[in-house]
From TrEMBL:
InterPro entries: P-loop_NTPase, Sulfotransfer_4
Organism of this sequence: Nocardioides agariphilus
Domain of life: Bacteria
TM segment ranges: none
Gene3D superfamilies reported in the protein's UniProt record: P-loop containing nucleotide triphosphate hydrolases
Record's protein name: Sulfotransferase family protein
One Pfam family from the record: Sulfotransfer_4
Xref: PANTHER family: P-LOOP CONTAINING NUCLEOSIDE TRIPHOSPHATE HYDROLASE PROTEIN, P-LOOP CONTAINING NUCLEOTIDE TRIPHOSPHATE HYDROLASE
Length: 220
């Protein structure tokens, strides 16, 4: 990995382009871990050791449960960088509703959501969901208020991309298109979306090293 080798944590709310951020970090050479809902089970007891052990094994992380733990991650890994992905809260809420509507209800998932949100999000009003996101963003900004160099705020929907992220992390801009991941595809089964998404970073890295210069689909 080139550039600044400090850990990077995405602390934006889900549906703000967190998966896109993860792909970007993988392209830049960071080992990465995304959403780990299984780790949420450690939050009620306050036993964060298993969560920090996972974070220790990677260069970067985003989504649940990482976004809630920026204070603890900051203390455990001094010098880390944090990226607050943002999106219009009302649009985010609509996207969340669409995602949930496409999922099969699961008691374990519902319980974990209540831990993460602080209330039952599936029964909550749009106003409650918007307030939760705005409150999270405001708290993160306040925490890093006297350390602006450690927090980057981006909104991919407004044109932010490689320039902002690479400038913040000290990397050269890679010669690959900026990824746009997980953009509201809820008709494809979740397992298939995950399989495709996990394969894309490798394909992009291969493309970046010009190993995929041979046109796909071309026959000799």
């Amino acid at each position: 990995m080139t550039g600044d080798k400090r850990k990077v944590f995405g602390i934006g709310w889900p549906k703000t382009g967190t998966t896109t951020l993860g792909h970007c970090l993988e392209i830049l050479g960071y080992s990465h871990v995304g959403c780990r809902l299984d780790l949420v089970d450690h939050l009620p007891s306050g036993d964060l050791a298993p969560i920090l052990d996972v974070a220790r094994a990677y260069d970067s992380a985003e989504d649940w449960p990482w976004l809630l733990l920026y204070r603890e991650l900051d203390a455990a890994f001094p010098g880390s960088r944090f990226v607050l992905t943002q999106r219009d809260p009302e649009a985010l809420t609509r996207s969340y509703r669409n995602m949930v509507a496409a999922q099969v209800r699961d008691a374990t998932l519902d319980r974990r959501r209540e831990v993460l949100y602080g209330f039952a999000p599936l029964e909550a009003s749009d106003e409650q969901l918007v307030a939760r996101v705005k409150g999270h963003n405001a708290a993160a900004r306040a925490y890093f208020a006297d350390r602006p160099g450690d927090l980057l705020e981006v909104d991919w929907s407004r044109g932010d991309g490689w320039a902002e992220l690479c400038g913040f992390l000290g990397h050269s801009i890679p010669e690959v298109p900026f990824p746009r991941a997980n953009a509201g595809d809820y008709k494809t089964p979740a397992w298939r979306r995950r399989l495709v998404e996990r394969g894309r970073p490798l394909m992009r890295r291969l493309a970046a090293t010009k190993l995929l210069s041979w046109p796909l689909g071309r026959r000799s």
